[in-house]
UniProtKB/TrEMBL annotation:
This is Peroxisomal trans-2-enoyl-CoA reductase. Keywords: Fatty acid biosynthesis, Fatty acid metabolism, Lipid biosynthesis, Lipid metabolism, NADP, Oxidoreductase, Peroxisome, Phosphoprotein. It comes from marine sediment metagenome. SUPFAM superfamilies: NAD(P)-binding Rossmann-fold domains (SSF51735). It is an enzyme of class 1 (oxidoreductase).
Amino acid sequence: MISQTHPRYAPDLMAGQVALVTGSGSGMGRATALEMAGCGARLALFARRSEPLEETAEMIRARGGDAFVVPGDTRDEDTIEAAMLKIKDHYGQLDVLVNNAGGQYIAAARDITNKGFEAVIRNNLIGSWQMTRAAADHFMFERGGSVVFVTAISARTALTGFTHTVAARAGVTGMMKTLAAEWGEYGIRLNCVAPGTIKTDALGRYPITSEQWQMLNRSVLNRMGTAEDISGMIIYLASRLGGFITGEDVYVDGGETLHLGHDARDMINPELFEQRKRGDGKE
Ligand SMILES: CCCCC/C=C/C(=O)SCCNC(=O)CCNC(=O)[C@H](O)C(C)(C)COP(=O)(O)OP(=O)(O)OC[C@H]1O[C@@H](n2cnc3c(N)ncnc32)[C@H](O)[C@@H]1OP(=O)(O)O
Ligand SMILES: NC(=O)C1=CN([C@@H]2O[C@H](COP(=O)(O)OP(=O)(O)OC[C@H]3O[C@@H](n4cnc5c(N)ncnc54)[C@H](OP(=O)(O)O)[C@@H]3O)[C@@H](O)[C@H]2O)C=CC1
């Protein structure tokens, strides 16, 4: 059995299950794969670059778990089909799919070209659909399963600078709910996890500093999220713990989307009100 340093879930929570995690060479995908392996799941690791996936696989194996690398691109049906066949051959089953792979670039809406908009829709919405459709066709229509989509807080709020991905992620949420309604009869549960601002290496790929990310982050808990904040919820939903949950959209955002704008406490405190007017308030 795999060793876990600080287990949150029982080491046999996912025993006997096979999970495919997309984007598992880094960030939240890697954290999810590692923790699922710690819960007894056998892992299929999917992303475009093999090297980071092999690193994740090595980390899992070093702790006594079972992991298998299936390189591919969620936008490319041929690589998805090849991955499903390899999983069938290697494990003979697939019980859990985590659609975590994705990404976009920051741009003001007026600077987003049609081609750029479409590229982000392909990477985040169409890719997730293709993976889900293939997993259902190959495995889940027969024996049920669980699908978790990693989206963003954008199904609940506007996110300026991210119009294309807001459209894509809100699309994923709508798709997830409709599939949940249609596929319940096959024993397939589908849910979304919507992360707030999560401190992963990916944030470093944007042209803004970590200090600027801190400023953009509006969590009421006064910190950024961690990859493990997200993996815990993914596992809850994917495993039998979430066995009666389907069609849900769970926000793991430290309260980032609670903000309504004005803080009435400032209005009844002249000092805070003056601070707010000067722009040096707590926000
Ligand atoms: C929801 C937001 C929450 C806030 C925090 C979010 C954090 C994260 O999401 S972490 C992820 C960090 N981001 C990344 O890792 C980068 C992800 N981006 C990509 O992988 C790619 O840029 C792509 C998939 C979105 C597009 O790639 P591809 O399909 O290969 O398309 P092209 O490179 O051919 O570009 C097509 C077209 O798209 C426009 N474009 C692409 N990149 C940029 C850019 N960096 N800036 C501006 N525009 C871009 C552009 O119009 C391209 O067409 P051409 O101009 O003809 O090249
Ligand atoms: N960090 C944050 O604050 C937030 C992140 N998110 C989203 O959560 C998810 C995980 O984010 P995070 O861990 O931070 O980011 P990472 O960039 O570390 O992880 C994304 C992974 O997805 C893989 N990937 C990207 N596009 C494709 C593709 N077309 N096919 C297969 N694999 C792909 C990448 O690997 P490779 O390049 O090898 O393919 C990469 O390892 C992403 O969808 C992200 O957009 C949402 C809200 C906030």
